[in-house]
Amino acid sequence: MDVSMNVNGQNQSHDVEPRTLLVHHIRENVGLTGTNIGCDTSSCGACTVHLDGQSVKSCTVLAVQATGGDITTIEGLAGTARSDGSATGDQNWHPMQEAFQQCHALQCGYCTPGMVMAATSLLKENPNPTEAEVREGLEGNLCRCTGYHNIVKAVMSAAGGA
Amino acid sequence: MIPAAFDYKVAESAEEAISLLGEHGDESKLLAGGHSLIPMMKFRLAAPTVLIDVARISDLSYIRQAGDHLAIGAMTKHFELETSAVVAEHAPMLAHVAALVGDPSVRHRGTLGGTLAHSDPASDLPAAVLALGGTIVAQGPGGTREIAANEFFTGYFESVLADDEILTEVRIPTGTGGWNYQKFNRRAQDWAIVGVGVADGGKGISLVNMGSTPLRATAAEEALASGASAADAAALAAQGLTPPQDSNADAAYRTHLATVLTRRALEAAGVA
Predict the structure, then answer these.
(1) Same-domain pairing of A14 and A68
(2) Are B171 and B137 in contact (CB under 8 A)?
């Protein structure tokens, strides 16, 4: 069936099977591979994107459920997306991306797109979180390298709290 | 993992959902937030041939004060419950428990009606609604009916909802009685190994993951009502129950947890 949604400011219409997961749609039909697939069971958060401004795990949303919605992926966060929705590579980072870089909040980087999307959603809902609130707020995103310390530091820094 | 193929229909109203359910029969399934159903479909534990999306029915998303209770539309999301000033004031236990479900991204999608209709004995919100003495409103081809929460759950992932009925509203009595919710788990964002909800100063005590449905701890409730102390009542929390066994806990450990958590919950709720 025809599925239309706005991805990173661009209208995207594709013929999609109803059982297609949003993460597969974003990666394979829209062609944006910044959103990773991790556990595939809504546990790890690697596939986190924003749907209508809120973080969701795109492995547990059907593409058809996002019909008419606004999707932001990691490529669209910095506002540097090309007309096809992909990132330009310009160093015009979103403050959260900058904070992750400054605080060395990643090692292998696999969880990072999801972490950044979850963290920006968190700050939208709670602009001045405590460290405990950041840890709670990111409980749906797993990192197997950093032990979370620098991720939490980055989010606090982006919030202006550290 | 990709679900088995299905047809996707959008219902714009409860009436349209009921008519689609009538048309497609028991091979069809209502889709709300999808955060319980879609994982089951990905594991091929469920394979409905028609999904009827009811999440777009905006008429079913509301939180209203209605005299002695809050009326909450079935499509109200967990995130809305945890951040609603009205829920915080009139049913603070519900707001508190909503914030314990899964993680924030899950709570942006999951709905109160969906979690009740799914009837998972390990879920938090059905137990909260049970303890609070909630009422569930269901609509079918013949009209609506009201079902007391303690008569709603019938078995493992089963409720009294008929194949052609949709859960439309949840009514929560407002009150100021002491409450508490104890969720015991070992990992972030996980289900409770055992959970205990205490509402209205101990008049309602509910248990999570202690049987095939969300349960009331009837023996403990009755003991409290007859004047037993919190500790004595809590010792009866698992009386007559057959808790499940899994890699987290055997039945004896769950029984122990239920009694300890019930005592903690009663004490935290101010029940002596």
Answers:
(1) yes
(2) yes
Q: Is A161 an interface residue toward B (CB < 8 Å)?
A: no
- Report the C-alpha gap between B156 and A140 in whole angstroms: 26
- Tell whether pTM > 0.90: yes
pLDDT tens, position by position, A70-105: 999 999 998 655 556 666 666 678 999 999 999 999
Residue B110 contacts A where some CB pair is shorter than 8 Å: no
Judged by CB atoms within 8 Å, which residues 15-44 of A form the interface with B? 17-21, 24, 40-43
Task: Encode pLDDT of B42-68 as tens digits.
Answer: 999 999 999 999 999 999 999 999 999
Residues forming beta bridges with residue B169, ordered by sequence position: B73, B137
CA A7 from chain centre, in angstroms, equals: 12
Contacting residues of A for B9, CB less than 8 Å apart: none
What CATH number corresponds to the domain at position A32? Answer: 3.10.20.30
May I ask the CATH architecture of the domain B180-268?
A: 2-Layer Sandwich (3.30)
Asked if the B58-173 domain carries CATH number 3.30.465.10, the reply is yes
Q: Model ipTM?
A: 0.94
Domain ranges of chain B: 7-53, 58-173, 180-268
Domain that holds residue A69: 2-77
pLDDT digit string, tens, across residues A34-77: 999 999 999 999 999 999 999 999 999 999 999 999 999 999 99
B32-42 per-position pLDDT tens digit: 999 999 999 99
Helices (H), chain A: 22-24, 74-77, 95-102, 112-125, 131-137, 149-158
Residue A8 has pLDDT above 90, yes or no: yes
* CATH architecture of the domain formed by B7-53: 2-Layer Sandwich (3.30)
Residues of B in contact with A60 (CB under 8 A): 34-35, 38-39, 106, 109
Mean pLDDT computed over B114-120: 98
Q: What is the CATH number of the domain that holds A104?
A: 1.10.150.120
